[in-house]
Give the backbone structure.
Amino acid sequence: MSDLFEKIVSLSKRRGFIFQSSEIYGGLSATYDYGPLGVELKRNVSQRWWNSMVYKHQNISGLDAAILMHPDVWKASGHVDAFNDPLIDDKVSNMRYRADQLIEGHIDKLRRKGKDAEADRVYQALVDALNAEDAAKGLYDVIMAEEIRSPDSGMFDWTEVRQFNLMFDTHAGPVKSVDNKIYLRPETAQGIFVNFHNVRETGRHQVPFGIAQIGKAFRNEIVARQFIFRMREFEQMEMQYFVKPGTQMEAFEAWREERMQWHISNGIRPSKLRWHEHEKLAHYADAAFDIQYEFPIGWQEVEGIHSRTDFDLSAHQSLSGKKMEYFDPVTNEKYLPYVVETSAGLDRTILTLLCEAYREEEVDGEIRSVMKFHPKLAPITVALFPLVKKDGMPEMAEKLQNDLQEHFLAFYDEKGAIGRRYRRMDEIGTPFCVTVDGESTSDGTVTVRHRDTMEQDRIPAEKVASYMIDSIAKWKP
């Protein structure tokens, strides 16, 4: 783990963004709890996604499907038979790795060394292995041929590559038996597909239209490391867009552009984002790209955009016996719609924002740690400080806090030197601090300090809300 990544993990716990789940019992691997600041950041991100996806598009409706579904859903989707990861063990350290990611890491190292021709050769070998009839053997052969060593032990002593199914199973009812075995959903998409007609009819939609959902998913990740990047319980922000067959690539490209711009609008530098085309398409897809972010741990996926064809609706129609076809009243055609999917990890988006926002700056000979979140995403938007705890300053600051709470999450703090209070707010990403001083109680003005520039403006207290709204609208990363 890089030094920068360790700093972000440490800050996340120290300031109340993210805690290890069940920490007093030693923690539960790959599960995390969102603290007071983390839950506000998470709510802001999910609401921003919902606004951009549902409120911005008249032909997209929301859904909140159940986590537990009929087990045949997962037979139809292919998860029961084919939801596997190719894993390999280092015999020396007993660490387990995704075989394909080991090879991708090796390719990245070659490119960093300027060995592009060799990297291209290994990349082609990876593509061939992933598309081979026995992908596990193909991946193992690449690792052996390239003598790829363990990232942890540095040794070259591997087990064979094996496939592991990632679904959690449980049982419904008082008696545990094969007949009542069910699964925790490994993705949110299937809840959308089985409700295709329900949403279409009640939402009075015609193709093309979309169904959006934010919800929990569960995967028994064997290789679960790197903080909240890969967890066993996580949250997805997904939208399935149903289109007429033959028009899917036009919709695919349009959603690719829109989703990339959404991440940039959150304050992510374009230079830290890139497209990654899938080396091997999933069984349901005819096109697939990932949006990757350059984390301190390397380039990793944040969101996937996939053209899923009619695989899902067709599979559910076949197994359930229920018609999933759509009748087009304009052309009088009946067909199974194709689907373009946008699937973003909410937790990975949070991690992206934490990594992107973190800065260390020298101010007056001291290092300032500051989280430069987009003001609309920051957990706390404004902090109110009385300069001292007397002469009516606390009362004025508290009244201003109550007024601002109508628009923003506002925080009151009267403890410590004013400089120390500024630093606390900087470190959690609060974009504005408002100080009430001796002049405020006599002339009604306050000082507004900006997190990013540390510049201060003196304005009438009654204009603070409009001033902040205007500043947020003009904000640039």
